[in-house]
Amino acid sequence: MKIWSLLLFIMTTLAAAHAAVSHAEFGKLPDGSPVTIYTLKSPKIEMRVMTFGARVVSITTPDRNGKKANIVLGYDKLEDYVKDNKTYFGVVPGRYANRIANGKFTLDGKEYHLSVNEGTNTLHGGKEGFDRRNWIGKEVPGGVEFTLVSPDGDQGFPGKLTAHVRYTLQGDAVTIHYSATTDKPTVVNLTNHAYFNLSGAGSGSILNEKLTIYADKFTPVNSSLIPTGEIKSVAGTPFDFTRPETIGARINANDEQLKLAHGYDQNWVLHGKMGTLHPAARVYDPASGRVLQEETTEPGVQFYTGNFLDGTFSGPNGRYDFRTGLCLETQHFPDSPNHPSFPSSELRPGQTYSSETRWSFAVE
Ligand code: GLA
Predict the structure, then answer these.
(1) β-bridge mates for residue 319, sequence order
(2) Ligand 1: which of 304, 329, 331 to mutate, most ligand atoms within 8 Å of CB?
(3) C-alpha to C-alpha distance for 68 and 62, rounded to whole angstroms
(4) Could you say which DSSP state residue 108 is in?
(5) Rounded distance from Cα 180 to ligand 1 centre (Å)
(6) What SS3 state is found at 8?
(7) Is 111 a catalytic residue?
(8) Over the stretch 4-51, which tens digit does the pLDDT of each residue have?
(9) Could you give the CA distance from residue 202 to residue 179 in angstroms, rounded to a whole number?
(10) What is the CA radius of gyration of the chain?
(11) What is the DSSP string of 286-354?
């Protein structure tokens, strides 16, 4: 009896314990700089992240029968990541995730002009966003912390920004903690751009997965996917995910917002209180039984159904076609620097930007 309780105690402690962490060189960038890949292992989950783009490379979890698969879209070779400057697989976009309209904003009466990389807009921080940088990695208990110093004027943004992204794995949950400081007033919005496919990366469409978003409002967009400023109720629209809904059930509905984005690619306004961890979304995959629960301290989440994926890129387990991955990017609302009514994304000297998102994995 005593032995059993001891065993049970050891097993519970192990499950809750910090992940084991190791690292290795993943390859070299065209300029010769080495990229390090970190492996975080807990009893059930293995996650790999790398310095190039501070990005998630893979997350391997068991399905309901214990069969393991990688559930985020990616590649097995560094050169494929270097070639792909379209998808943002697993990256930390920055300095400002999502779009800034016409590549400009005004702060303290001064207009700033940014690097423009999508039509007339700035997407994910501009041409040389944080996703193209080789961050500095350092092992921490149960994970890794990446650091990037973005100089004053980088892609047009004011202020020297020092950013940290820390990934830790504990039991069945991955925590991502973002922080940043600046030496001049600036704007900042960091997230993770992992594309999940709970049936396995490269296994096909995500349209059969069931989604809940803990929000009853969203921010509609114009034809260049910039929020119009309206905060709209999801009630009676295909944007209502307040109860679990199959992603594909309404995605081709005759709805202006869905047509503009060729699927879902909007920001939802989360119920929870900004600054404290609250539920953002839950995905359930009936085929594998896998469940992803996402929590965040952020006010919004961008739900994107991989509408720009077109089969150009492939991973070790298959082609990344239209709508074969889904993103749930926790964030401040897109284009906030141009919408005074949205929660502010400004950061001033002396303040610390701090944001956290947690992904918990389970099966049902
Ligand atoms: C975000 C955007 C999408 C798209 C992807 C990257 O999710 O909202 O419109 O740009 O990034 O392809």
Answers:
(1) 314
(2) 304
(3) 4
(4) T
(5) 23
(6) helix
(7) no
(8) 777 776 666 555 678 999 999 999 999 999 999 999 999 999 999 999
(9) 32
(10) 20
(11) TTT-EEEEEEESSSEEEEE--TT--SS-EETTEE--TT--BEEEEESPTTGGG-TTSPP-EE-TT--EE
- Ligand 1 is surrounded, with C-beta below 6 A, by 87-88, 98, 123, 225, 265, 302, 304, 308, 327, 329
pLDDT tens per residue, range 311-326: 999 999 999 999 999 9
Cβ-count burial of 308 within 10 angstroms (0-12 exposed, 13-18 middle, 19+ buried)?
A: middle
**Tokens in use for 284?**
């359930």
Cα-to-centroid distance, 346 and ligand 1 (Å): 22
224/73 Cα distance (integer angstroms): 25
* CA-based nearest residue to 218, from 296, 151, 274, 302: 302
In angstroms, rounded to a whole number, what is the distance separating the alpha carbons of residues 293 and 359?
6
Query: Which H, E and C letters describe 224-292, residue by residue?
Result: CCCECCCCEECCCCCCCCCCCEEHHHCCCCCCHHHHHHCCCEEEEEECCCCCCCEEEEEEECCCCCEEE
Q: Are 199 and 285 in contact (CB under 8 A)?
A: yes
The two tokens of residue 48 are 């790999």
User: Which percentage of the chain shows pLDDT scores above 70?
Assistant: 97
- Short-list 138, 160, 136, CA closest to 148: 136
The CA distance from 121 to 335, in Å, is 10
Q: Which of 303, 308, 307 is nearest to 241 (CA)?
A: 303
